[in-house]
Design a protein that fits this description.
The chain has 278 residues and is α/β, with parallel strands linked by helices. It is 42% helix and 13% strand. It is built from twelve helices and eight strands. Strands 1-2-3-4-5-6-7-8 form an eight-stranded parallel barrel, surrounded by seven helices. Helix 5 packs across helix 6. The structure holds 3-methyl-2-oxobutanoic acid. 3-methyl-2-oxobutanoic acid (KIV) binds at residues 25, 46-48, 86, 183, 185, 206, 216, 218.
Length: 278
């Protein structure tokens, strides 16, 4: 792929060519630089940061201010990937005008290229208004963690015909409202395949099987950094939790033994100069 910026149009062209789209969550400047350099197409500043960075039990307590800080950091570290800011709970539920204002902050203050909202046809008018303001919108269906209290738990959605039909109809409604892509989280693989075939816009799966147009993972799951929950759908490509534990243990032992810092980590001084102080 070229070195030019990833755009929503490019993502649509990737779907048409059958080229899989890679998406990862990202919450800070240094990681953004690494993921961007590795050629990841989309960096999603997910409200999952509430759980993996801030230690909350869910994404519900995450605020606009939390999202602004992390989205700014990711935007600064990104040259090529499309940066998508996740609109947090209650930033787009109160009124359409407040939603447009909050979505605008992601682009104007935090440097994002697009925003993501959770929900189906009930937020179609909000998506249309945000889009009309020139802000690209990514949808999110299936398991929508901001509605965890309504869904009653983190479980697969759309397992029977009626529930699957609702997800399919919501996907079509979001496409009509103007989304450029839709995240499908925790839905059966055959349903994700059908939705993907029925849509012109790309689907991005997480726990939705291999037939989506792209995949997203939480970077902490991919790197084995978050030990509290390990979802069935997450593949762990590294075990940084234990690597970091070993490195920190080694540092502690070196400090206790007095072997860190060594001469190579210390600054010298003319003995005559220090002698004057004794
Ligand atoms: O917040 C997040 O990380 C997300 C992804 C899991 C899609 O919404």
């Amino acid at each position: 792929m070229s070195d030019s910026k990833v755009t929503t149009l490019k993502l649509k062209e990737m779907k048409q060519r059958g080229e899989k789209i890679t998406v990862l969550t990202c919450y800070d400047y240094s990681t953004a630089k690494m993921l961007d350099k590795a050629g990841i197409d989309v960096l999603l500043v997910g409200d999952s940061l509430g759980m993996v960075l801030l230690g909350y039990d869910s994404t519900i307590p995450v605020t606009m201010e939390d999202m602004m800080i992390h989205t700014k950091a990711v935007s600064k570290g990104t040259k090529k990937a499309l940066v998508v800011g996740d609109m947090p709970f209650m930033s787009y539920q109160i009124s359409v005008s407040e939603s447009v204002r909050n979505a605008g902050r992601f682009l104007q203050e935090a440097g994002a290229n697009a925003v993501k909202l959770e929900g189906g046809r009930e937020i179609a008018c909000t998506i249309q208004a945000i889009n009309a303001a020139g802000i690209p919108v990514m949808g999110h269906l299936g398991l929508t963690p901001q509605s965890i209290n309504k869904l009653g738990g983190y479980r697969v959605q759309g397992k029977d015909e009626a529930a699957a039909r609702i997800i399919l109809n919501n996907a079509l409604a979001l496409q009509d409202a103007g989304v450029f892509a839709i995240v499908l989280e925790c839905v059966p693989a055959p349903l994700a395949k059908m939705v993907t075939e029925r849509l012109d816009v790309p689907t991005i799966g997480i726990g939705a099987g291999v037939d989506c147009d792209g995949q997203v993972l939480v970077i902490h799951d991919l790197l084995g950094l978050y030990s509290e929950i390990s979802p069935k759908f997450a593949k762990t490509y590294a075990s940084l939790h234990s690597t970091i534990g070993e490195a920190v243990g080694q540092y502690k032992a070196d400090v206790r033994k007095g072997v860190f810092p060594g001469p190579e980590h210390s600054f010298g001084m003319d003995p005559g100069e220090i002698g004057k102080l004794y």
